[in-house]
From TrEMBL:
Protein name (Swiss-Prot/TrEMBL): Pentacotripeptide-repeat region of PRORP domain-containing protein
The keyword Repeat is assigned to this record: yes
GO MF term list: mRNA binding
InterPro entries cross-referenced by the UniProt entry: PPR_rpt, TPR-like_helical_dom_sf
Keyword Repeat assigned: yes
Pfam families documented for this protein: PPR (PF01535), PPR_1 (PF12854), PPR_2 (PF13041)
Keywords: Repeat
Length: 585
């Protein structure tokens, strides 16, 4: 069916499809292949759409996305617009990216139909204008509300234009207006712009309040900019701001995410012992999380029991933190018993609770525990979500049961779940581990077409598998595609490339990766085993441990050295070691 569709032969493809007792997934597969063939008949597609409804199959969001993307790519813009209208009539909301794509294509081809799209996007403004005509006069609150709407949607040009309009009308932005901009800029990862807004506030005589500072502090900690966060706290204190529980919790959470667990624990202990700060359940939860990360889950259990006796009410989040700590120690039986003791009502177990235990059981390959968790979920009327199903896929892939993994993916899609990037990576890893590289590439491209965007891990899995198969042309294509998607190589990528170069005997090329890694700011510790008094005389590398901070992955240079020895280039390791020693010093 797919091969006929791929060749543009829709009639034969439909004949095969009817033999399947087709589902909407099968129709989507046919549509995708046919639209990629380049021999598309819009009339035939309309008939196919009608046939789907005849069989009682309701198109899902993937059906509309496949049709829309194909029509846009082929330049059938009016048909693409019709698909969006149909999508809306089926109660699916077109994404902002889809609308923007159609707008750009329409403007480029000078199609007048795009006016309808503009009218749709400006519907809100028509309502505003009608209110103005009726005597409504916009004020500072109106402007701030519109800026909030634009910035929440990431429409920064519009937000800044409205900010200028607001100022030109004589309304000076308030601390609330600026804080809204800062908060949404931080959400979009635009920290420099957010800090620029803070400077603007100082210049315009609009002093920021503690909320503004806390938003920025939280963003710095979220991005692991711990040094900058400490400096920011000093600035806050110099300006006379007294840090509250939100400030300290943001810093403690940042320390925890950066792996500085002991620092986080010490900071929170000081806050708790100070007595002049309100210690709410959020603060306690961060403290409990820090202790669990430090393998002190027993201490957390004892503390929680004592605090409950004194009137403390743990939340579901508190229980989930303890569950995670128990699972980290591989105590799944104890974790399930603890889950049974959860308070019922608002603070009972949720889907995260079950997924925490299920994830650990799947990693351990504990089929008995998996069955127990699934049974409990069924009793509590919880359905598996994308996280739980991905955990099960990981278990099946580890057990070599790839067919079960694919069955789960089909189940996900049929029940309206969008497979995540992690789902994609689990499948890719399982296929590459079994040597099914061609299937892995097919899955990779199909997931991309479903808008499940790959991450650096996806590319690393395929690059490593391609290099092991000596498929260097595919490796080159993957690297090109990776840069096209805006992803940069990490230590694992360089490790795989170095391994491939050494296998080919291209030791010089492997050594040349060093400046690229330095430029890419790949940071890690390089372990070089040095030793042997007659290193230069005997050309033998008998190493003792020596750890120096550098910018190369631990395994890369080991591979380079192994490669040089294997090819009989005994002087090369010496040069590499000398270069690295000089760089480290």
């Amino acid at each position: 069916m797919q091969e006929c569709a791929k060749a543009g032969n829709l009639t034969d493809s439909l004949n095969f499809l009817r033999l399947l007792g087709p589902s909407i997934l099968d129709y989507n597969g046919l549509l995708y292949r046919y639209l990629r063939s380049g021999h598309v008949s819009v009339e035939a597609l309309a008939n196919l759409f009608a046939e789907m409804k005849t069989f009682g199959l309701c198109p899902n969001v993937w059906t509309f996305n496949i049709l829309f993307n194909a029509f846009c790519a082929l330049g059938y813009l009016e048909d693409a617009f019709y698909v969006l209208e149909e999508m809306w009539s089926h109660r699916f909301v077109p994404s902002f990216m889809s609308l923007r794509k159609l707008m750009k294509k329409s403007l480029a081809s000078e199609v007048t139909k795009f006016v309808k799209l503009i009218k749709l996007s400006l519907f809100y403004w028509e309502r505003v204008l009608s209110q103005i005509k009726k005597g409504f006069s916009p004020n500072i609150y109106s402007y701030t509300a519109v800026i909030l709407g634009f910035s929440k949607q990431g429409l920064w040009n519009e937000a800044y234009c409205f900010l200028k309009l607001m100022q030109s009308e004589g309304y000076m932005p308030t601390v609330v207006t600026y804080t809204i901009l800062i908060k949404n800029l931080c959400r979009d990862g635009k920290l420099k712009e957010a800090l620029g807004i803070l400077e603007t506030m100082d210049k315009e005589g609009c002093p920021p309040d503690l909320v503004t500072f806390n938003v920025l502090l939280h963003a710095l900690c979220d991005h692991n900019a711990i040094t900058e966060a400490h400096n920011f706290i000093q600035i806050m204190e110099e300006k006379g701001y007294l840090l509250d529980q939100f400030s300290w919790c943001a810093l403690a959470g940042g320390l925890l995410r950066a792996g500085l667990v002991e620092n986080s624990i010490c900071l929170l202990q000081k806050i708790i012992l100070m007595g002049n700060q309100i210690v709410d359940v959020v603060t306690w939860n961060i403290y409990f999380h820090s202790l669990c990360c430090n393998n002190n889950v027993k201490k957390v259990l004892d503390m929680t029991e004592r605090m409950i006796e004194k009137g403390f009410t743990p939340t579901t989040c508190t229980y989930n933190i303890i569950l995670k700590g128990l699972c980290k120690g591989q105590n799944t039986d104890e974790a399930l018993e603890f889950l049974d003791s959860f308070a019922r009502g608002g603070n009972g177990p949720d889907l995260i609770s079950f997924n925490t235990i299920l994830s650990t059981a799947c990693k351990q390959g504990d089929s008995s525990m998996i069955r127990r968790v699934l049974t409990r979920m069924n009793v509590e009327c919880f359905n598996l979500d994308i996280v739980g199903m991905t955990c099960l896929m990981q278990y099946f892939s580890k057990a070599g049961r790839l067919s079960e993994s694919f069955r789960l993916v089909k189940y996900m899609i049929l029940h309206g779940h969008l497979p995540s990037t992690i789902t994609c990576n689990v499948l890719l890893h399982g296929l590459c581990k079994k040597g099914f590289l061609a299937h892995a590439y097919r899955i990779f491209h199909e997931f991309k077409s479903m808008k499940t965007f790959p991450d650096i891990t996806s590319y690393n899995i395929l690059i490593h598998a391609s290099i092991r198969k000596a498929d260097y042309s595919s490796t080159k294509c993957l690297l090109t595609d990776m840069y096209h998607e805006g992803l940069l190589p990490d230590a694992t990528t360089y490790g795989s490339l170095c391994y491939g170069l050494c296998r080919k005997g291209s030791i010089r090329a492997a050594v040349c990766l060093e400046p690229w890694m330095l430029e890419s700011d790949v940071s890690f510790q390089l372990r070089i085993k040095l030793g042997g008094e007659k290193l230069l005389l005997n050309h033998r590398l008998s190493f003792s441990s020596r750890i120096e901070n550098s910018k190369q992955p631990p395994c890369d240079w080991d591979r380079a050295l192994n490669g040089t020895n294997r090819h009989g280039w005994d002087h090369k390791p010496t040069i590499v070691i000398c270069r690295l020693s000089a760089d480290a010093e």
